[in-house]
Amino acid sequence: MKARRMLGLVSVTTAMLTAVVLLYGCGGESAKETTLSIQDTFRTSLHATRLGKATWYSRANGGFEGLTNVSITQMGCMKCHPGTKADGTPIDPATYQPGCDDCHTSPGSPVSDQICLKCHSRQAREMQFYSDIHRQKGFRCMSCHTLEDVHGDGRQYAAWLEPGAVKAKCENCHPQVTSNPAHNIHTKDVDCLACHTQSIVSCYNCHLQSEIQGNVKRPHTVLKDYMLLLRRKDTGKVYTGTIMTLNYNDKTFVAVAPYRAHTIARNARKCEDCHDNAAIREYNQTGRIVLTTWDGSKVVNKKGVIPVPPDWQTAFQLDFVDYTGDPTSPTTDPTKWVFLKTGADGKQMLYAEPLSQEQLQKLSQPYTSP
């Protein structure tokens, strides 16, 4: 039975979906079509496995584990939960396992956006600070995301950035773009998001001692009004990016990744927002881009569009802070944040590549109206 798109129309106990399972052998790659229940596909979904967290943290992938020497199993990351089931029943962290009742009050019950936002807090932050053309038109989470995005498609993915892990994309609803100078120049090499995203929103300087010792998420601040420009590795297109930063026992870390923010504007950025902007001029003049600065009481971030150059590991400058309060306390005393140091001890980039030298040269050219 074909799985229908909207969660509210699906019976979790009876619905079936068709998944393509790729089988690899000596003769190359072949595809076999099989019918799997939603319960079967959910077991390997990212909602169930939480593998995205482990992928980024892993020492083997250049993650923060290489600096902490603490296994991710010693933290609460892999059993992160919203506190209650969908029906309000409290969750016992010691025995919690992801399941249908995280989102559904009963089999096949509709799932509201508020249920999604209980876990997807970054999207809640985006809604707090920015509009989105799709929300303005009445779109909900499942207006764009498919059942396979939520329940899985039978394959196990290491992160949502792996090709095929998330089926939602602009082209599903916008197969053709209008003809205008910007589209005619950029559509082949630049993703829609690079011009239509208002901002990335990300937490900054997560204090990992609090996570490990007290299972407390404690970022120093929230970064907004900025956006990285990088290349997404699977498509090669210029794409929006984010930074993720942590500190632990005086060690600091930054990860750079593609990111799809839910802050989409109908009208695209102006050409001068990217071409010959403040960040590219700073890089051309000094060889560096100061992303964050400690101003004596808090960290502030560079605003606007920020290109990721080939030498980003040395070009990006970041100030880090440390929390001197009780790491096990669920409340944060803002006076306990102190400057730690400038620079990251560990650096990581997955699913992305920096912009090429040729692309940087193009961005360095001032925009002139035709």
Q: What do these coordinates show?
A:
The protein is an alpha/beta fold. It folds into 2 domains: 129 residues, no CATH class; 196 residues, no CATH class. 24% of the residues lie in helices and 24% in strands. The radius of gyration is 22 Å and the shape is globular. It starts with 15 loop residues before the first strand and ends in a 6-residue tail after the last helix. The N terminus is likely disordered.
Set down the secondary structure blueprint:
Elements: E1 16-25, E2 28-37, H1 38-43, H2 46-49, H3 51-57, H4 65-68, H5 113-119, H6 121-129, H7 133-136, H8 141-144, H9 147-151, H10 181-186, H11 192-196, E3 200-204, E4 206-207, H12 208-214, E5 221-232, E6 238-248, E7 251-258, H13 278-286, E8 289-290, E9 292-294, E10 299-301, E11 304-307, H14 312-315, E12 316-317, E13 319-323, E14 337-342, E15 346-349, E16 352-353, H15 357-364
Parallel strand pairs: 4-6, 5-11, 7-15, 8-12
Antiparallel strand pairs: 1-2, 3-5, 5-6, 5-16, 6-7, 9-10, 13-14
How many beta-strand runs?
A: 16
C-alpha termini separation: 54 Å
| Strand content bin | 15-25%
Largest sheet: 8 strands, mixed
Low-confidence stretches: 1-34
Whole-number radius of gyration? 22 Å
Number of helices, counting only DSSP H or I runs of 4 residues or more: 15
Structural key phrases:
alpha/beta, 2 domains, single chain
